[in-house]
Amino acid sequence: MKQCPNCNATYDDAKKFCIKCGTVLEDAQPAPATDETTVLNEQAAPVVEQAAPQPEPQPQQPVYQAPPVYQQAPPVYQQAPVNPDDHTAEMDQEDIAKGKLYAIFVYLFGPVAMIVGLLAVKDSKFLDFHIKLNIKYLVVNTILVLLSAVFCWTFVIPIAGAICMCIVSVLIIISFVQCCKGQAKDPAIIKNIKFLK
Q1: Rounded to whole angstroms, how far apart are CA atoms 184 and 128?
Q2: At what angle do helices 93-109 and 125-150 cross, to 10 degrees?
Q3: How much is the pTM?
């Protein structure tokens, strides 16, 4: 039996043309056998499923991962070192404001202003600090003048005394400026004098 490749009609092997569509049947394939034995054999044969071809493994592309976010510790600020010569923090701002004007007068007018300040403002640490500082300046200047007068014939000690009095004058100006700013700081050289603490 032949099968038409165009319309799938079956014919005897002797036929050369398809009756339905006219296709030449010479090269046609024989029709599949449909007798009972082949049907039974097909039913009895176990069906073997072919495993689907596995796709070739693709090279894995690297997956971008965000870098881990680390929680930053808050910055540690170093505390400014405490200056032992600065006594401003030990005093109340109201006390500074109350005694500041009289402390300025102490630098400008000397011992008279000290007495007036002590009588006008009582228990002011700021005023007391600057009065004691002025007494130290007064004592140091008096000592320098006396030494220069006693040893005036040496010529070296009066010159050294004059230089020291200039240094003390610079320290007085620095202390006056600090007083105007409301600060209470021990000056560089005079702080080593231990009386009137």
Answers
A1: 10
A2: 30
A3: 0.56
